[in-house]
Amino acid sequence: MDKLIIDKGMFQTTRVRLRDKEIVEISICSRDEISLVGKVYRGRVTRVVGGINAAFVDIGEAQNAYLQLSGKSQVRQGEDILVQVVKDADGGKGAKLTLDVSIPGRYSVYLPLEKVVRVSKSIESQNERERLLSLGESIAGGDFGLVIRTQASGVGQDDLIRDLNELQGIWESVSQEGRSGMGPKLIYQGPSIAEQAAKAVLEGEVGQLMINDTSLFNELISYLKPHGKEAVSRVELFDKSSDIFDYLGIKKRIKSLSSKRIWLKSGGNIVIEKTEALTVIDVNTAKSIKGHSAEDTIYKTNLEAADEIATQIKLRDLGGIILVDFIDMKSAKNRAELLSKMKSLFAFERGKTIIYGYTELGIMEISRKNEKKDISAHLLEECLCCKGNGRLPSRLALLDLLEKEVRRIKTHAAVECVMFELDIQFYETISQNSFAEIREISREHGLVILLVGSFDMYQGGFKIAAMGSLKELLEKAKKYRVFEEIQS
Fold it and tell me: Tell me: the pLDDT tens digits for 331-342?
């Protein structure tokens, strides 16, 4: 059974799902950049572009959102419409919208504006699929659409109807609110982090849940208590001062999701290069391979790389065009088996990921739909010095790391002040944008924070320089050309 880990910091919340101690899913939500996917808005059409059959819609967010219109969908400039976000804004592109609102429940997804009933492809039993399809069509009666979820396997009609009644109640409130006012407004934002986690426990999606935040833990317990002690017993509060991911031994694995080069157990490696138009993945062997066994060695390396590439694509949530340059193989049989393996690795993403096969140059071509930014966008940001050719830990990732270090020091050491040494570029970024957040950290943990900028430290460098009294650390800080004392 899967285990869900929630690491809630002051600036970022990270959710990781483990299966047999391996990461199968990860999402990061920063305090000032919450995902809009699934939210329903009353939006105002600001512009209709007939040439591309699309409209731009003001939903009250920083950027206008983008709505692709079908042949049947017609909207007018200045019109208020009900829309749902299907993909977050990314870079200069606004959020992507749909007119076909869907409300997800425990056993089904309610499609009030459609008429089709579908069953999740993850339900493998043909008999069960037919049973659920018949039930769904009987319940919908041609008045609305449904997607019967995997969790509905083995569930009877009464449970499906109860779940549906709840979703219809939500839709009634949403549609009424959409009609009752004017102008952009958030109408429906879905469940909170605690509600989502409670739902995952109650629906059997996860067997265990570990959280490092007391208030979130208490909120989650309040949702689970009415369902009995067994549900509550599956949630654990991680109250140690150490990093929760470090404690579980998955910190290095998470870090690899922002790495350009990932090493394979065989000694080979894959290199992931993301451009604005596409992602290129290159597979390399550990060393020069010659002789009669070369083809077999290359084949085994490619198979190993395929597993890691599939994992990286899913965990990073890479989207768009993906080109994979595997090591050249002479055997047509080996090439076909590698292609078959890649297709099997994405079998449960039918409709989301398409493996087209090899191009004339022997490069495997993949296209994939994603709903949010890839994970590296949360962990890295463009380097100001190299104008985007290299990447450094992001401001929020740095603040998250600093807060964890302050928490650890406060727990284990009786000191008044801690001094952090940063490379001068990071220091300037922090001084311009983040003193207010660092003051929050100081107030939260009751520790004076002294930041010093170093011209000698490597780019992106960050370390604890000293701990002790404020007076003695201020003396030490004088040897640096720039420093700042921060306290609540």
Answer: 999 999 999 999
